[in-house]
Amino acid sequence: MSVLEIDSVTKRFGGLLAVNDVSFEVDRGEIVGLIGPNGSGKSTVFNCIMSIYDVTEGSITFDGTDITDHRTHEVVNSGVSRVSQESNPIESMPVGGNIQLFTLPNSIVSFGGGASDAEIYEYAARVDIEDKLEEMPDELPHADIRRLEIAKALATEPELLLLDEPFAGMNQAEITELAATFERFRENGMTIVIVDHNMGGLMELVDRAVVLNNGDKLMEGTPTQVTEDPRVQKAYLGTAEEA
Amino acid sequence: MSSATDRLSTVTGRLDQSLQPLADGFNRLFGDYVGELNGLQFVLVFGSLAAVLTAPFWGTFGLVRAMTVAAIWAIFAMSWDIQSGYTGYISFGHSVLSGAAAYTTAMLIHNVDPGLSMAVTIPVSILAALVVGLLIALPSLRLSGPYFSLITFVAVLIFYRLIPSFSAYTGGETGIQSVEVFTYDPIARYYYMIVPMLVVAVALTFIARSNIGLILVSIRENEAAVNAAGIDATKFKIFSFALSSIPMGIGGVLLVHFTGGVDPTTFIAVDRSIEMIAMAVLGGMSSILGPLGGAFFLIVLRDYILTDLANLSSPARWTIFWALVLAVLVFVRDGLFRKLWHGLERYGRGRT
């Protein structure tokens, strides 16, 4: 049963066609890779799901509800959370405060509420930054900043987690460890979509991959099907030659 | 130099520890709501409170009068702060809100019924400030960037020009001067202003230290993150403006019953909006109590020290006023009272 349906989504920026009639589905409990060379429209698809951008045409359904025209906070509250490519913690708040913000109720009369210290500790512990709750974001190494971004997303209790280039800038040991973390999330029932322009490491983690190229959907299939597909190889090699 | 500060902090640290039991008592009762204090901070807060409450018994007439005016402006500065200081959406038009309340009171008395009771005019006037606040906030706070500030700026210019256009009802340039004052007794009048100010200060401090304050600050720091947290940033921006409008209305009502009348220059001119900002910035934006301190500091300086003690002319007083604000902006950007507060934290035991 698919939890996320992207149905003929098109996104135009003026004359630029960033995403062209892309459709795919994600089943509950799956880890799906959304891959493609730089500029192929992967992050734009995420931005459309999160309503950072309005889609030009098409619809997005999550858990049976049409969320195409939902506003960002409504998408989040329906159970979708996204970890951006850029880290943007609030520099004036410690790690714990940054996580706490993501647990606060969307209510102007709720003076208290939000997660307890123990719950914040739990979110942090799921990505191994539980001993850094008091530290300020600018004191953290890059990998921990990225973990904080994931902890913030977890704090909204998502059913579907969208990860945008989660491994960027990490060394091999950190990548392996983080991939194991994502596996644990899935074992706990979470559905995950990972955007990456780098096919290599991702293919061991994902059940399926959807390949975008220049805004078009090129193909989808198992990791083996994708890596062996001549169109995919051409898309990646093609950009390599151009670059 | 550093050994001198070390020695100083040894002394203050000991002083702080001896005061700590008092502060602990406060922290146990209220710490969860408004944050914890150390011994020195406790003395600052409650020493100032005692000084403010007893001012008529030790202050001169001039000083008490200045502090009466300061109480009203402290309400304006704190109200501005909960919206502009916290969310970072800077309003240049807050005098429209206090002006709306003051003009509502005066126009009800002038146009409707001179015998209208304060029990009617005060709530209606505060409501008017809220309505005007929502009229400005609803369209403008959906925009981001500098547009909000520009709209508030234009709003105050329009409001200022509207007054003479309807002079039959508003009294034009000279305004309406038939409003009853609360009392002619300067001591009673002082408490008429100080008590509402303290209520506003406690209420806004409580809100600022709650989740609401955390969300408002987060909007200033990173609005996208607030939306990504599942929180409707637009709703909270509009709420903060409404929340600011109510005490602005209270302050406007106090001011009209203090002066006994309204006129566009005293109540609405954009200068008044900028003065509120100056007080908040001098005291320390986004701290509520900083702007309160800033208002007392600047008004006691302008209306008492430079007027009664130094006998300076009005242009000289204003020049010093603005030069001081400029100096704080350049050298103590976080504000004088925030600096003092953190200083006490360092020189005390330093609670985390």
From TrEMBL, chain A:
Signal peptide: none annotated. GO terms for cellular component: plasma membrane. The keyword 4Fe-4S does not apply. It holds the Pfam family BCA_ABC_TP_C. PANTHER family: ABC TRANSPORTER ATP-BINDING PROTEIN, CONSERVED COMPONENT OF ABC TRANSPORTER FOR NATURAL AMINO ACIDS-RELATED. The keyword Transport applies. InterPro entries: AAA+_ATPase, ABC_AA/LPS_Transport, ABC_transporter-like_ATP-bd, BCA_ABC_TP_C, P-loop_NTPase. GO terms for molecular function: ATP binding; ATP hydrolysis activity. Keywords: ATP-binding, Nucleotide-binding, Transport. This is Amino acid/amide ABC transporter ATP-binding protein 1, HAAT family. Residues 4-239 form the ABC transporter domain. It comes from the Archaea.
From TrEMBL, chain B:
InterPro entries: ABC_transp_permease, LivM-like. Its main location: membrane. Keywords: Cell membrane, Membrane, Transmembrane, Transmembrane helix. GO terms for cellular component: plasma membrane. It is found in: Cell membrane. It is a multi-pass membrane protein. One of its GO terms (molecular function) is branched-chain amino acid transmembrane transporter activity. The chain crosses the membrane at residues 39-58, 63-80, 86-109, 116-141, 147-169, 190-218, 238-256, 277-300, 320-337. It holds the Pfam family BPD_transp_2. This is Amino acid/amide ABC transporter membrane protein 2, HAAT family. It comes from Natronorubrum thiooxidans. The lineage of its organism: Archaea, Methanobacteriati, Methanobacteriota, Stenosarchaea group, Halobacteria.
